[in-house]
From TrEMBL:
PROSITE patterns linked to this entry: WD_REPEATS_1 (PS00678), WD_REPEATS_2 (PS50082), WD_REPEATS_REGION (PS50294)
The protein's name in its UniProt record: Mitochondrial division protein 1
InterPro entries: Dynein_regulator_LIS1 (IPR017252), WD40/YVTN_repeat-like_dom_sf (IPR015943), WD40_PAC1 (IPR020472), WD40_repeat_CS (IPR019775), WD40_repeat_dom_sf (IPR036322), WD40_rpt (IPR001680)
Species, as recorded: Aspergillus tanneri
Region (Disordered): 1-30
Family: Belongs to the WD repeat MDV1/CAF4 family.
Record keywords: Cell cycle, Cell division, Coiled coil, Cytoplasm, Cytoskeleton, Microtubule, Mitosis, Repeat, Transport, WD repeat
């Protein structure tokens, strides 16, 4: 049966791989999907836990159990530098920061968050302390003025990037908070973790976050979450039984991945309207294609799966053996903002803008990290 299903998948890919459809797909970034890695980057001495793209340059950062962060050039496939400072495994990295100054944030099992300055040879400019247990995720707000961290101490903390002060501690989860995701405008934050829930927070007033919604349904710890970009609304609305014209918010749909091997999609009322089944092991990362039509996921079954939201969430591509072992992270390179005004160069604006926006060019570049100590780059 396995062979038959693999055969059917290959046959459907062959059927859709006519010269004209391939040409069209290669020219249309909104339908590009990863196939085979362009580069397998090796230098880490232990599991690579996380990866993040620089919003402007062709740099990508990776964090590892070897306590280091490595900066690579994904266009050339070369190692640029190694950052040392954390004393325990690095669990997450993210680029962002206030307009005009891109920063790299990292968090670790050593209970610290570090801010590095890429413009000054990645020197540490600030160390943020306050969590009582390992810190599993860090994300800059789209404006870049604040940073949110999630920890095994069950809390999330909001930090002022310029002062380094913790401006708010957000409680709500009853167990380890593993992942967080912002809406494109920064008004909403989605969090998930070992209590098997996903929670949506209203951050309109960042000093006073309001809990809006709790989403249930998974049968094991949740590993990852993401808020859908507006580019996906036209595909998700019919699946959720709603009209696209009535969707005005920036957090209308959300997705979570779990150790129960499934991905669940929720609407803004907290209803689970679709469960994607196909992975054979823990789902460790989920993201929406910037074009809006696909959802991508990575798993401990060593595969990346691409789900077509226009075909009721059908899995239309499986990248088998994307790594030699468990996959820990999956990131899509941020789009490039077109027609930027002179003197108003966009820094994190290019990362966090709505990727479905006609003013943003989609970059067909995906990075994955894994237990095999590798960072893989998939590019068109």
């Amino acid at each position: 049966m396995d062979l038959e299903s693999k055969n059917a998948t290959l046959q459907s890919e062959l059927d859709s791989a006519t010269p004209s459809s391939l040409l069209k797909r290669n020219k249309d970034p909104s339908s590009w999907l990863p196939t085979t890695p362009r580069y397998c980057l090796e230098s880490h001495r232990n599991t690579v836990n996380c990866v993040a793209f620089h919003p402007i340059y062709s740099s990508v950062a990776s964090g590892s159990d070897d306590c280091t962060i490595k900066i690579w050039d994904w266009e050339l496939g070369e190692l640029e530098m190694t950052l040392k400072g954390h004393t325990r495994p690095v669990l997450d990295v993210d680029y962002g920061g206030p307009r005009g100054s891109v920063l790299l944030a990292s968090c670790s099992s050593d209970l610290s968050i570090r801010l590095w300055n890429p413009a000054d040879e990645y020197k540490t400019i600030r160390t943020l302390l306050g969590h009582d247990h390992m810190i599993s995720a860090v994300r800059f707000t789209p404006s870049g003025n604040a940073l949110v961290s999630a920890s095994r101490d069950r809390d999330m903390r909001i930090w002022d990037v310029t002062t380094g002060y913790c401006v708010r501690t957000v409680n709500g989860h009853s167990a380890w908070v593993r992942d967080v995701s912002f809406s494109f405008d920064g008004k909403f934050l989605l969090s998930t973790g070992d209590d098997m829930t996903a929670r949506l927070w209203d951050l309109s007033v960042i000093s006073n976050p309001e809990h809006k919604l709790t989403m249930l349904g998974h049968e094991h710890f949740n590993e990852c979450c993401v808020i859908a970009p507006p580019a996906s609304y036209q595909y998700l609305a019919p699946l959720a039984g709603s009209k696209e014209s009535s969707l005005k918010g920036s957090a209308e749909f959300m997705a979570t991945g779990s150790r129960d091997k499934t991905i669940k999609l929720y609407d803004s009322r907290g209803n689970c309207f679709l469960t994607l089944v196909g992975h054979d092991n823990w789902v460790r990362a989920v993201l929406f294609h910037p074009g809006g039509k696909y959802l991508l996921s990575a798993s401990d079954d060593k595969t990346i799966r691409c789900w077509d939201l226009n075909q009721d969430g059908k899995c239309v591509r499986t990248v088998t053996d994307a790594h030699d072992s468990f996959i820990t992270s999956l990131r899509w390179a941020p789009g490039v903002v077109k027609n930027t005004l002179a003197g108003g160069t966009t820094t994190d604006g290019s990362t966090k803008k709505n990727e479905g926006d006609s003013n943003v060019d989609i970059r067909c570049v995906v990075a994955t990290a894994g237990w095999d100590c590798k960072l893989n780059i998939f590019a068109n």
